[in-house]
Structures are given as C-alpha cells and as structure tokens.
Amino acid sequence: MPPTPYxxxxxxxxxxxxxxxxxxxxxxxxxxxxxxxxxxxxxxWVGIESTKRGYEVTLHVVEDVGSETFCDLLEFPPLDPDxxxxxxxxxxxxxxxxxxxxERHTGAVRHRWVNAGMAGDEYLDFxxxxxxxx
Length: 134
What we know:
Elements: H1 15-23, E1 28-34, E2 42-51, E3 54-63, E4 87-92, H2 95-106, E5 114-115, H3 119-128
Antiparallel strand pairs: 1-2, 1-5, 2-3, 3-4
C-alpha cells in the first residue's frame, strides 16, 4: 500500500519545530497539489525562508512534468516564465506570522509543513494517488 500523508507522521514538522527551523535559517515548504483549471497540467507549493527582509513566503506554480523517478520540484518548469523563482506573497517579521500568511494566501495547513526539499516526497504521494484534483 503506498504511503499517505497520514501514514508518515515523522515527515511533518510540529509548529514549534517549523518555527525553530525558520529561526535557524532553514526553509520550510508545503506541497499544495494540482492547479485547478490550468490549460497545462500544473502543481503548486509554498515555501518560507528567512531573508534579509524577513520571513519570505513564496508560491511556486510549475508544470506537472514529474514521475516517480523525477520529483525534484525545483527542476520543474514554471507555469509562467515570468515567475521562474516563484511569486512572493508576503514578508513577515516573525516565523509564526509567515506561516499564518502562507496559510491565509494559499490554503496551506498548519500541521503539513516539511523541511525545505521535502515537498517532493509529498509530490510522490500525489503521483501514487493518481494525481487527484483535490
């Protein structure tokens, strides 16, 4: 049976760990799933990282070109070539505020944050589930 987001509880960061990761300068991210109504199959994910400006929330919308052997989301082509590095949605003064902004702007869920680079695992679950629309 393929793993589901709920069969891998160690993958997700509890809120204090997510905040601590951001404070230490490590990014966090969350896979958000398929883009509804796009002409080209696409997916999206949101990331938060510490920058000189504060905690920056970035939405990434990319073509869904992955497979079980290719799930490095950073390598997927952007749906909009002008958003090669994602779209900055907000900059917050504190880590918890950035998480709240990401949730408000994208529908991200507080208990589904992972360390930077791990959203590809979520994408792999998405693939194994047959690329569900929701």
